[in-house]
Amino acid sequence: MRKKIAAANWKMNCTLQEGEKLIDEILKSGIVLQEHQCSIFAVPYPYLINVQHQLTGQKNYFVAAQNCHQQKSGAYTGEVSAAMLASMQIPYCIIGHSERRMYNNETNAILAEKINLCYDNNITPIFCCGESLETRESGSQNDFVAKQITASLFHLPVEKIKTIIIAYEPIWAIGTGKTASTEQAQEMHQYIRSVLSDKYGKAVADDIPILYGGSVKPDNANELFACADVDGGLVGGASLKANDFTAIIKALPG
Ligand code: PEP
Fold it and tell me: Which of 12, 55, 64, 246 could crosslink 29 through cysteines, CB 3.0-4.6 Å?
């Protein structure tokens, strides 16, 4: 069975103490994740070690970074490399979140370099893709998302891409309270899987988790996660409230 994943993206939120309390409260709810389920917390760099310690011994709960730099090392003040994350045993890293594409000018080509560095360092990328409202309204969302995927991922050999996690996050749904309908989400997820299948074959595409992101909340998680090609969510705002994120984890298909 394909992995089902509830991933939290804290972005630039929470003090260390607030973050610790949040994780504590989520863990206290005592959800036992099944073999095919996992929950990932993408937290600010300074908290990675603390959260990793908090999650030690919790089955299928993992920590993630929200980004890494596209160069191996060097004179890039304030940046963090994939090798640094690997040296802390960080297993996952978000790559290509729309906020980084927008505010840090991360192009598809730069993201391909970040993806390579993740794999060189045994870090599983959570690769984000998704179109703007303008692109959706013009009806070219499929071509746009296919281009993001082909340009940043299709140089990868099958042994690597088969371990990736993809997050489809329509920009118009991120932090807006506006969620894609289940039809819109399923349609795009199925399309992404077909793009992967055309290049790498059905068996590989069928095993790649594709998460939905964009105003996932406790009251829409069940119906979104019930879509055949939606394998969980990447959650911003609602991941900052223990009760909400706990409910979202519980919505993962059993
Ligand atoms: C995100 O930033 O990845 C996200 C999906 O945010 P939100 O859930 O707040 O829309």
Answer: 246
